[in-house]
Amino acid sequence: MLYPKQFQVNEAWIAFQLNHAPIVTVRDGLFNCICLMDAASCFILGSVMVPADHSEPSALEAKHLFKKSWAHKKEYPGRLFVPNGRFTTDLTVEAKRNNIAVIPVPLSHLQPIIGDVRREYKKRHARKIE
Hints:
Elements: E1 12-17, E2 23-25, E3 29-38, E4 44-51, H1 59-70, E5 79-83, H2 90-97, E6 101-105, H3 107-125
Parallel strand pairs: 1-5, 5-6
Antiparallel strand pairs: 1-3, 2-3, 3-4
């Protein structure tokens, strides 16, 4: 398990999907919100909306996400934690291009850090089905 107290600010980031179910838009269809979060502060550094039928951000979206996240401290972390089996192409390529080691871990190991924000998002955006 990973906990915020194990890290210094900007030592490690976490890539994760914020939403549990696709976000529905009338005009453009279904999307997932992919975020980069600082592991120590739990601050969401940046996010990108990705079509739900894509497994991860495109190369351009990944580049934009890292650039936006970099802007907070003007430096990249040494490590990026990703859920096992997720973000294995363009997001990983962009991280490595910026000299960030990518470390896959079970999603359950990230829950102590990302769980609160995911639960709050779900609570605020849950729809009642009747």
